[in-house]
Each structure stands twice: as C-alpha cells, then as structure tokens.
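User: Could you go from structure to sequence for me? I need the amino acid at each position, not a summary. Structure tokens:
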C-alpha cells in the first residue's frame, strides 16, 4: 500500500475505516490526517453532518489516546476544527467528488498550518472560549461553511 501527503493509508476507504474505528495512532494523526478526515466527512455527510462527524471522531480519537497514556498539549479545539472544515468546505464541490489526494493536490495551501493566523490572533484562538465553542475570527472573515453548533446553521457552500 502506498502513502500520500494526507497521511496513511493512501486509499480513502482504508483511511475512513480507520478513522471510523478510531484506530489511527495519535502519532500518525497530524495536520494532513485532520484535513483528510474533514474532507471525507464532507464527502460522506455533506455540510450539514460533517461537523458532527468530525467533532465526534476527533474527540473519541483523543479520548482513546489519553486512555493509552498520551498527554495532549491542547486537546480538542472547537474553533480550530471548524476553521479547517470551513476552508475545506469552501473548496469542496460534491458533484466533483474524488479521492482526497486529488482534492488536496488542487489545494496544497491547506497544508499550511499557519493559514489560521491570517484569520485569528493567537490571543483569540488560544482563549478558553475558542477551545470550547466556535468564535469568529478577529483578523479576516472565514468563507461560509458547515454548521457551527446545534443552534446556528452557517451559510452552506
């Protein structure tokens, strides 16, 4: 099996099975894997269900890692999760659905972890409020995207 920039394994079906089973080791679940999981959540659930699927998956992966002795430096962060999901969703076209490698080949800027700093100051992003609920950016607006919480439906892509 080959690998790609959006993490192992290279085929989306295997990656999705591993994400769904919460069996991806924390050491292998970096930024690229987060992006890939977000893309696949959008592909499988659309903008209305992608956030719930992503949020649940990340929280459960983190909980399992903590049970195995991992001490996360930050833990689950609602605003960061929504930020990246909205950037992916802004470029996502369901009619053009394809594998994640092709999608990210067309959007390599998403691999830049510092892209978030164009929208959020460090103070705002690292606040307790931003960790637990979505907060709007203080530098530049985000593109419309999936639902940000149960009471609010953001503009659909």
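Assistant: Here is the amino acid at each position, in order:
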């Amino acid at each position: 099996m080959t690998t790609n920039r959006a993490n192992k394994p290279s085929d989306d079906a295997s990656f999705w099975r591993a994400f769904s089973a919460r069996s991806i080791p924390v050491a292998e679940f970096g930024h690229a894997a987060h992006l890939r999981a977000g893309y696949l959540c959008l592909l499988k659930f659309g903008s209305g269900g992608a956030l719930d699927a992503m949020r649940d998956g990340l929280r459960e992966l983190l909980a399992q890692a903590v049970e195995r002795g991992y001490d996360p430096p930050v833990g689950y962060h609602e605003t960061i999760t929504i930020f990246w999901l909205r950037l992916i969703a802004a470029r996502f076209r369901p009619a053009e659905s394809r594998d994640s490698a092709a999608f990210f080949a067309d959007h390599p800027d998403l691999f830049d972890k510092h892209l978030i700093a164009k929208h959020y100051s460090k103070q705002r992003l690292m606040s307790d409020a931003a960790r637990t609920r979505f907060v709007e950016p203080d530098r530049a607006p985000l593109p419309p995207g999936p639902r940000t919480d149960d009471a609010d439906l953001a503009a659909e892509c």
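One structural detail worth keeping in mind: The chain has six helices and no strands.
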